[in-house]
Amino acid sequence: MPGPVKTEAVVLRSIRYGEADRILHLYTLHRGRIGAIAKGVRRARSRFGGRLEPFFRLRIELHEGRGELLTVTGADTIDGHAGLRGDARSLDAAARACDAVARLFETTEPHPAVFNLLCRKLAMLNEDPGCATRANALAFRMKLLLAAGLAPQLGSCARCGEGEHLVGFSGAAGGVVCGACEAGAFALEEPAHAFMTASLGSPLTEVPPAEDRVLGQVERAISATLEHHAHVRLGPAAARLPQPLAQSTA
Question: Is the pLDDT confidence value at 248 over 60?
Fold first, then answer.
């Protein structure tokens, strides 16, 4: 029904529109992903200030009319995540997390677990730049797969049910496969299998460490699952940004 809407929201993306407006992509607690227009927000005296920028968590008021876009009528900041904006890796990780949520959960169907997961991810990046790792990003994507009902089968062969000798992964089959069923699959080493299992059962704050080779296999498995079952292709989980130069002790 058209009318006022009040909910919590995370700003996924903000796009300039016209002379002074912005189009917002929001992920909300009660309405899933929605689009909204913030009129006059780019004017110097706008009552919204800078709080409609990406990664802000808000209590937002909107008006729903007959068009596809809702209109922002009020917004209060819950968390602006100012800390992550001062670190290139954290900023990039936040953008990739928001993009993954936007692509996987495109409808207005509410997913409170996804909203809360995204809020935890942004809060972690805000508090600790050390969380902006490829391992953490992949663990986040594994949890999104679970929320979307796409979590791969990891406990036994997805083709025959064998519980041992799980040596490969097949996106088409929907999970790990044994040696007898590995035709068409790619290799998935035991550490990659263990990382995927741990990611589903552990908080984001307890992501296990893993070598880059292992994480490459995990990322390939996630990509194969998404492309085959959701027809979604995400970009790399993490950017390969240059490491900070070590300070000289001379």
Answer: no
